[in-house]
Specification:
Keywords: Membrane, Transmembrane, Transmembrane helix
Largest sheet: none
Shape: elongated
Number of helices: 2
Low-confidence stretches: none
Distance between the termini: 58 Å
Amino acid sequence: MGNSLHNKIYLGRRSVAVLNNKRVQAMICVGAFASIGLVWLAIRAFK
């Protein structure tokens, strides 16, 4: 029963629990701001 629906649901919940980690949230936030900054610089460079 390694590929049962219960295991898939449990793995899904586990991945959501990883997002509750403060370090992961901080890395996602920093990555998002860096991406926004790069897009802003690219838009300014092409105008």
